[in-house]
Specification:
32% of the residues lie in helices and 19% in strands. It is built from 18 helices and 23 strands. An eight-stranded parallel β-sheet has the order 8-14-15-16-17-18-19-20. It has a six-stranded mixed β-sheet with strand order 3-2-7-21-22-23, with helices on one face. Strands 9-10-11-13-12 form a five-stranded mixed β-sheet, with helices on both faces. The protein binds zinc ion. Zinc ion (ZN) binds next to loops.
Length: 559
Amino acid sequence: MRRVLATAILALAVGALSYAQQPAADLILTNGKIITVDDRFTIAQALAIKGDRIVAVGTNQQIAQMAGPATRRTDLRGRAVVPGLIDNHMHLLRAGTTWANEVRLDGVDSRKQALDRLAARAKAIAPGEWVYTIGGWSVDQFADSRAKFSRAELDRLIPNHPVAIQESYYRTYLNSRGLDAFGIKDGAPDPTDFPKGSIVRDASGHATGIVEGGMGAVRAIAAKMPRVPDAGLEASTLAMIKDMNRAGLTSFGVAGCDANLLTMYRKWEAEHRLNVRIFCIDGIGAGTPEQVDRALPRIAEIKLFQGSDFVDNVLYGESVYGPLHDPMFDSTSDPKPEQLAQWRRLAMEIAKNRLPLHVHAELTHTIDGFLDQIEAVNKVYPVKNLRWMLAHFNQSNAAQLARMKRLGMYAAVHPWNVINGGIMHDIFGDEAYEQPPLATIQASGIMWGFGSDGSAANQYMPFVTLHYAVTGKMMSGLKVMRQTIGREDALIAYTRHNAFFVFQEDNLGAIQPGKLADLVVLDRDYLTVPAEQIRDIKPVLTMVGGRIVYDANAVIATK
Ligand SMILES: [Zn+2]
């Protein structure tokens, strides 16, 4: 514990002016437990906001002096406040194209409740329309039963709609109408667009409704699910953003920023109604040596940091050279020297142009291969201070962390086990308990931050991930990870470190004077609630740039 009462530090921040001499605040929040996540992990009682920024943090008495006649005041009644949570890697823009059509199961810990949600969706739409989910969950998160969904069960529940429930990126459950829609018939050969053997049949050749086969099969189905129509895209995306704010999320590193979708976010920014901050991770696709030839001059033309503190392009990634992009759920990789040579050509150009890099690096041989190349690049163009980070990082180890530390690199950690703990145990055996090796990463001393890699590969809710980091458990209580860490370190990885990862350390990641007023009021204290209850913590109010974007029960009242 590194708690210090705020007075000494704040006196510095306010400079020569006393609290009473500063311009009156627009809003003051008092009588809370402000978990500032500054670099001393200071706990304060109160804070003051003017415009979109925090202007002071301190004791109730200090902050009370900043009230003028027009200042709104809110009594937090002892509630905990944390900085707005930042996910360093979420496929957020893409998720908006299906969000309103999907039955999302993020954070649902009961199989019965999942079935209820599916049935409710069927009732709400016309017969014949798809009831579907594109990942973000697995049966192992359910506390009541982890049984797979059966065709007969889904037929009984939803007889009049095709159903496709994608479990992470691993398998899909179809009902009879769903099987029909894909031309999967009892007693007939499998359609050729599915990997061989992926359609699971019983001894008599009857399709069970379960489609296995990992990403290949899953994507064949997901590609046919109806995107929201253009006319519904704004509403779908706004509903998604509301869900993110409800979960306490205010900023994202976004892997793959589709330019057309980004236009919509920029429009909302101009209208002062964008409720999340978007920091894009994007690159130039290259999958052959010829494509690398063509990519190199384009890398030299990339201009980052042309945007704002709401929407910006900040990182190259998440893939550098296509053939070395490890598919999720592959158990091992075998990067070839000629592939790594192409990867190095691209990385050399990225370093030469002093671009930051956030690269998908998952399996241990691939991570070693990338580090070999980065060490070679580093001799020509030092990468220290470029903010190069390996992302996902599930199968990493202490030796790799030591190499990264020497290079001045960072880790963007995306613990797929939060929903995939059971699946990953099937694939990796007991090694899955060390994926990712959170305690080893923490002990290495390199800066690291949390991301979800949602919305298909993982669930998006930060307190579900924080519960996992502290207890090693999925929502169901299933223990899936041995390398647990402390609550403070876990929270720092969701806030201050991620602010650095999206180049917003001067604006975000801590509750401090001068930073943007992105914060979350919680229904219970993250630092003292029993560890098993961290998953149940609910934001009651979320603020972005001083604007309330979510308020569960009108916490902020004008007095
Ligand atoms: Zn990835």
